[in-house]
Amino acid sequence: MSPAGVSDTFVDEVRRLRATYEKQRETTRLVPPAGRPVLDLAIDVINGMTCYTYWYERDGGDSDAAEPQVVQLADIPGTLSGAILRLDANLPLRQDSYDITGNDIRPLASPPPLPDFQDDSEDISNALATLPVVAVDPNQHFVKRGKYASEIHNLIACQGRSCPGTRRSPHVIQLLGRSCQGELVFEKLIPRYVLSAVHPLSTYKDWILQLVDGLCYLHSLDIVHRDLRIDNLLFSRDGLHLVICDLESRWGNRLAPEVSRLPTLEANWTKASDVYDLGVTIKGMLYGNNPITNLVEWKVPAPLDKIVEACTRVLPVDRPSLDEIRNMMEILDIS
User: Fold this and answer.
1) How do the pLDDT tens digits run along the chain, 335 residues long?
2) Do 114 and 105 meet the contact criterion of CB atoms below 8 Å apart?
3) How many of the other CB atoms lie within 10 Å of CB of 248?
4) So which domain of life are we looking at (predicted)?
């Protein structure tokens, strides 16, 4: 078969998988458009079970519109609550707050209140003072408010321990300095929305190899990203080059089985959990989005299915190293 034929087969399969998910996405009442607007979502461990708590905006005609509707769902595979979280079943049409544990549906007598967001930003003025001031050009630069000193420390480590320094990896974002307003300044790149289009297998192969190279460089500095996902990927304006951003290394994904679901900074994030997140990120690249819940079972087309399976093995010791993943990617037949 010709290269074009192979590429078309892969692209067609990605489009089919996306269409299947979009149908689930559009009909689930977990989120709009079929469901109510979500005010907040919490994932906690309750009585030894992972539970998803949704706070929903009330319909305008509800008499108690000031109080959100609260729905709690326990992650129990093979039951109603587990099926709802995997988009294989739907929420019941109810107005009250309720809990679904397994196949049991019970009203919530005392619904938990809507969480009060606590900003845990640090005073990073000392770290900012070490950075050069950059005259920001909106056409060339992107700025963000820094929250943690760890981000500045990690960024500077990636560029020879100076700023703007020398960029040591083309696949890790470079810190250029600070603005007059004390914001962090970076080169303006394209956000992950380039992934909304379906691309040939060769393009995904190039991107994944670049992602592996960037992550490999971070790990060589003993930097665990913790929050690797498509939202933290940027692209050059021509879409050819991928860059990892958001190096806070503080809060992050809790997808790898060994990472604690408790709200703690000591959650056992490691280089192996980054590899797990790499597998999930590859899924997101193919689907061009994040799943409604982390339990949605996204199928991955060949030949990338073997890469994702290896990265997301349950035991950290069974996951491949980044060098092994690079080798697996390089020998992929795209001809």
Assistant:
1) 334 444 489 999 999 999 999 999 999 999 999 999 999 999 988 888 899 999 999 876 554 457 899 999 999 999 999 999 999 999 999 999 999 999 999 999 999 999 887 888 999 999 999 999 999 999 999 999 999 999 999 999 999 999 999 999 999 999 999 999 999 999 999 999 999 999 999 999 999 999 999 999 999 999 999 999 999 999 999 999 999 999 999 988 889 999 988 778 888 999 999 999 999 999 999 999 999 998 999 999 999 999 999 999 999 999 999 999 999 999 998 86
2) no
3) 20
4) Eukaryota
